[in-house]
Amino acid sequence: DTAVSQTPKYLVTQMGNDKSIKCEQNLGHDTMYWYKQDSKKFLKIMFSYNNKELIINETVPNRFSPKSPDKAHLNLHINSLELGDSAVYFCASSNDARWKLFFGSGTQLSVL
Amino acid sequence: KNEVEQSPQNLTAQEGEFITINCSYSVGISALHWLQQHPGGGIVSLFMLSSGKKKHGRLIATINIQEKHSSLHITASHPRDSAVYICATIKAAGNKLTFGGGTRVLVKP
After folding, report:
1. What are the residues whose beta carbons fall under 8 Å from the beta carbon of B87, sequence distance 6 or more?
2. How large is the average pLDDT for residues B92-102?
3. Separation of alpha carbons B64 and B69, rounded Å
4. Portion 23-42 of A in contact with B at CB < 8 A
């Protein structure tokens, strides 16, 4: 069983569309994260949820909205996609940032 | 200047060589992660350190909190160690990771 699974792995879409990326973890962790990796491979935190509650919300456009229906799921919805949103998005989970992180396999988003 | 700096950015080694990757940070932290990103893109957590030294197989990670510096060593390197190695810090207050830019390691047979 995959510990942190995110879907889809690849997402190609047109500018202006709305899309979602799903993430699920079966590790029983309390905290889940969304990270963005840009074309230079630089990782940056976007959001962090602890037990369905938003605890980190970096300077991310309002077009990005995380949704956590329960502590095992953290989905990322993106409205009105722009070219600059093209990146690889990683979901991760842990019991706390001071504990080992488990990453999903990433979603490569390409906005045309 | 980034809050977390790694050096070198790129490193090429021959199989069997000892490799060292450095990570320096500018603010007080409570812990530091070392991550490995494989050519296929997947990210694996190698170590989480708050002091001293940790060893796992051929990998050794050290941290000096006073000097704001951590190193990741790979002993007897192997081509399968080829990956990007990323350090990430957690500030003394808070839960947010700040990432270094990564070190791309290529180990040639």
Report:
1. B4, B6, B21, B23, B32, B33, B34, B35, B70, B72, B99, B100
2. 82
3. 5
4. 31, 33, 40-42
Q: Which of A41, A99, A100 sits opposite B84 (nearest CB)?
A: A41
Per-residue pLDDT reduced to its tens digit, B2-58: 889 999 999 999 999 999 999 999 988 889 999 999 888 889 999 999 999 999 999
Q: A48 near A56, Cβ under 8 Å?
A: yes
What is d(CA A1, CA A4) in angstroms, rounded to the nearest whole number? 9
Q: Mind listing the pLDDT tens digit for each residue in A57-67?
A: 777 889 999 99
Nearest C-alpha neighbor of B96 from the set A111, A54, A74: A54
Give the whole-angstrom CA distance, residue A98 versus residue B76. 29
> Using an 8 Å Cβ cutoff, are A107 and A11 in contact?
yes
